[in-house]
Design goal:
Elements lengths: L1 E11 L1 E2 L2 E8 L5 E4 L2 E3 L6 H13 L1 E18 L8 E17 L11 E6 L10 H12 L13
Parallel strand pairs: 1-7
Antiparallel strand pairs: 1-5, 2-3, 3-4, 3-8, 6-7
Length: 154
């Protein structure tokens, strides 16, 4: 089985009890909310990745104010073209950031189609990826080891 490692950096931006999220299609095409951020380019520093990705996906310039933690997830992905299934390992670096400039806008020709602020209390009712739950737990609890246990979504 082919092994694939993807390292990405994401930001938790909370302002006035609202969190900044982006919307992206799930593998089945259903829109779901995600944290703004994304994959590192070869040779790129993760902090630079999250700053770049926030600008691309939301139009905001951000200042990273802290490292919240790391989420590691591993799963088998089904057949990719002629390559067969892959053992996919996602390593996601989670930062806290604050908006320092720019204006909210949607990404054009990217992996997301909408950026919006959501009330923190509303997040559980949104169709969203598990990483948001992990990130909010890290943001609220600030564990010394930078890890949050969040059960898988059923």
């Amino acid at each position: 089985m082919r092994k694939k490692l993807r390292v990405a950096a994401y930001a938790v931006c909370v302002r006035d009890d609202r969190i900044l999220l982006a919307r992206s299609p799930a593998p089945d095409g259903t829109p779901e909310w995600v944290l703004p951020g994304g994959g590192m380019e070869h040779g790129e520093d993760p902090l630079d990745t999250v700053v770049r990705e926030l600008d691309e996906e939301t139009g905001y310039r951000v200042e990273v104010t802290g490292l919240l933690g790391i989420d590691s997830s591993r799963r088998t992905l089904p057949r990719e073209g002629l390559r067969g299934p892959s053992d996919h390992h996602a390593l996601r670096i989670l930062y806290e950031a604050r908006i320092v400039g720019g204006e909210l806008r949607n990404e054009v020709n990217g992996s997301t189609d909408l950026a919006a602020w959501h009330d923190l209390d509303e997040v559980p009712t949104l169709t969203h990826v598990r990483l948001i739950d992990v990130a909010l737990k890290l943001w609220r609890d600030r564990p010394a080891n930078g890890r949050a246990h969040v059960p898988p979504k059923v």
